[in-house]
Design a protein that fits this description.
By secondary structure, the protein is of the alpha+beta class. It is built from six helices and eleven strands. The chain folds into two domains: 1-115, Gcn5-related N-acetyltransferase (GNAT) (Aminopeptidase, 3-Layer(aba) Sandwich); 122-213, no CATH class.
């Protein structure tokens, strides 16, 4: 039986397993890799406009996947999502994404937030994988802000999938989410005057996108 478990504290017996899956998936790319201690500080963290989750997917008491994601007032954010190497291509990614979406919908309902979309950043070499799970890659020149003072702006794809009740997204909705992401999650100072955001803002003008059918596939 596959279980999606919220990790409530670093002493949870699955915390280390989840961190190891995260390391395996992301440590080779320092530009998008966060120190794992970040997750011990943010799991379950909530504010008036955001709530973080750090969760693990378990099958037969074995951790097969992890997810660090958040609900914000402007949409869900799939921060880090990974399946353990030997368990990839067995449908666990689809299960994990469905569980994340279910958790976000329930969070939204409890908070009374009118949330319609889950956003995710992904590299070009992972684009087909995310699109196979139902994500629509937005036609934008999107950049992920630096993770450190010495880091760089990283060209990425920004994808979106409907959570409930809406299959059209406007440029204003995209910009609202990215503004929140840059300011509250990445805490990027002065982002609004930097070229990546200025260009993104312009490309969102008068944008209205009908998202493709987002049925999830194996």
């Amino acid at each position: 039986m596959v279980i999606f478990k919220e990790i409530d504290a670093p002493d949870d017996k699955y915390f280390t397993d989840a961190i190891n899956i995260y390391r395996e998936a992301f440590e080779s790319n320092p530009e998008i890799y966060l120190d794992p201690k970040y997750f011990s500080q943010t799991h379950g963290r909530a504010s008036k406009d955001m709530e973080w989750h750090f969760s693990v997917l378990i099958d037969q008491e074995t951790a097969v996947g992890m997810a660090a994601f958040a609900l914000t007032v402007f949409g869900g954010y799939g921060g880090y999502v990974a399946i353990k190497g030997e368990f990839r291509h067995h449908g666990y990614g689809t299960v994990l994404l469905k569980k994340i979406m279910e958790a976000l919908v329930e969070d939204s309902r409890q908070k009374g937030w009118d949330i319609h979309f889950l956003f995710a950043e992904y590299e070009e070499n992972n684009r087909k994988l995310w699109e196979s799970k139902g994500f629509f890659t937005l036609p934008l020149n999107y950049f992920q802000p630096p993770l450190s003072d010495t880091g760089k702006w990283i060209p990425m794809n920004l994808g979106v999938i409907p959570l409930a009740g809406k299959d059209t997204i406007s440029g204003e909705e995209i910009l609202d989410f990215v503004t929140f992401l840059y300011s509250k999650i990445y805490r990027e100072r002065g982002y609004s005057k930097k070229q990546p955001f200025v260009a993104l803002k312009k490309s969102c003008e008068n944008l209205n996108i009908h998202l493709m059918d987002s049925n999830l596939s194996e």
